[in-house]
Amino acid sequence: MASLQIATTLNSLPPQTMTRSLPPNSSGSARSHSLPPRNLSVPRREAMALIFAAPIISGIGFRDTALAQPTVGLREYIDSFDGYSFKYPQNWIQVRGAGADIFFRDPYVLDENISVELSSPSSSNYKSVEDLGPPEEAGKKVLKQYLTEFMSTRLGVRRESSVLSTSSRVADDGRMYYQVEVNIKSYANNNELAVMPGDRVTRLEWDRRYLSVLGVENNQLYELRLQTPENVFVEEEYDLRQVMDSFRVNKVSA
């Protein structure tokens, strides 16, 4: 009975207030704020935001451990020596020695990056991106190049790939660009040395989207490459397409 009376008394109390003294020159001597009921459960999205000081979108699944940030703004990169420019998420970091002419990656999603590749000026003589054929033909060449780069000598590795879309556009600089999107999935056995087939279970290693923009200038073929896990692409598609549309090739003075 005593417990019931205490509970009844607590429920009848007014909302807790917090009084904060104001400076002497303020119009009032005190100000009160009603404190709303406290919610002790913190959503995972908000918890991660406290860690990285910005809202973070969590990737789905273990194989692509992705913590993708939402729109953070774009920064322009200009290479006046080689003759190209593009925009990239301003929180991405440059990685040197990656083999490309320039390489940036997301600091949180390690599978997400952007790079630019150039054909050799001494061994190429491109006049237009149409030298690659129509966009559909260029898409096949891009996919073949990706699969060649990702060839693996591991036992039990299998790749599934497809060209998702190809298109051409004339940008505001008057030049034509091709855009190619492909998907590649990699599967591998969890125990590649197992003797019995039942002991070799195939699992999905990664599922990625690759977006390429192709342009020609200075008798060279330029390719902007974007790599991102498929589950992250769903969240960042708007930003990534802005990056693709920003790619330009420029005439280099002799």
Which key features would you list for this structure?
seven-stranded antiparallel beta sheet, Protein Transport Mog1p, Chain A, three-stranded antiparallel beta sheet, 20% helix, 254 residues, alpha+beta, disordered N terminus
From the alpha carbons, calculate the radius of gyration and give it in angstroms.
Answer: 27 Å
The major β-sheet equals: 7 strands, antiparallel
N- and C-termini, Cα separation = 95 Å
Structural class: alpha+beta
Instruction: Name the CATH homologous superfamily of the domain at 84-153 and 163-181 and 209-249.
Output: Mog1/PsbP, alpha/beta/alpha sandwich
Strand content: 35-45%
Helix content: 10-25%
Mean pLDDT: 79
Topology as H/E string?
A: HEEHEEEEEEEHEEEEHE
Quote the CATH topology of the domain at 84-153 and 163-181 and 209-249: Protein Transport Mog1p, Chain A
CATH class division of the domain at 84-153 and 163-181 and 209-249 = Alpha Beta
Looking across the biggest beta sheet, what order are the strands in?
7-8-9-13-12-11-10
